[in-house]
Design brief:
- By secondary structure, the protein is an alpha/beta fold.
- The protein has one domain: Rossmann fold (3-Layer(aba) Sandwich).
- It has helices spanning 20-29, 58-65, 84-91, 94-98, 101-106, 128-137, 153-170; strands spanning 9-12, 36-38, 71-76, 111-118, 140-148.
- A 5-stranded parallel beta sheet has the order 2-1-3-4-5.
- Helix 6 links the parallel strand 4 and strand 5.
- It is globular.
- The two termini are 14 Å apart.
């Protein structure tokens, strides 16, 4: 079996560019020089059946995504699921199976990792949307690192150990 090239790209979907989720990304990736795309800095409109949003920042980002593997999506847990920024971004992947099928086909076989920050408890079913998206697009879901940003000192101390294990999976 031939090993895939490892050239990660992080896509950050948080309302705070330098908040807990960015800290979680740093905890996993340390000082590696992996590009981070901050969705907050882009104009990505919601999915539109008439494709009226064709000139926003989504398609250039989708084209850039194709140059990387794995893809790492970073999102805080908001109301038991991904952030609205991340949801809008993933909703637009519909464009890749409808109008830019050439790009959509290139997602097949790509690895997808999730980095998430949470403050209270890991929500049940948080990963389901990512897993099902990967199944639909023939991507390889590789799991989620949960970064605890709450006040339980014992759980905070586990962040580093879990981050190192997760990083080893990304770079395996």
């Amino acid at each position: 079996m031939q090993r895939k090239n490892i050239d990660p790209l992080v896509i950050l979907g948080s309302s705070r560019s330098h908040g807990n989720t960015r800290q979680a990304v740093h905890e996993v990736l340390q000082d590696s020089h992996i590009p981070i795309i901050d969705l907050k800095t882009l104009q990505i409109a919601p999915y539109d059946y008439a494709y009226a949003n064709a000139h926003d920042d989504f398609m250039p980002l989708a084209e850039k995504m194709m140059q990387y593997n794995p893809l790492i999506l970073a999102t805080p847990v908001y109301w038991y699921t991904m952030s609205a920024l991340m949801k809008t971004f993933i909703d637009r992947w519909s464009d890749l199976v409808r109008i830019r099928k050439d790009l959509g086909r290139r997602l097949a076989g790509k690895d997808l990792f999730i980095i998430s920050s949470y403050g209270d408890s890991i929500p049940r079913g948080f990963e389901d949307a990512f897993i099902q998206t990967c199944t639909y697009l023939d991507m390889c879901y590789q799991g989620c690192y949960y970064f605890y940003s709450g006040e339980d000192v014992a759980v905070v101390q586990e962040n580093t150990t879990l981050a190192k294990k997760f990083a080893a999976r990304i770079f395996a």
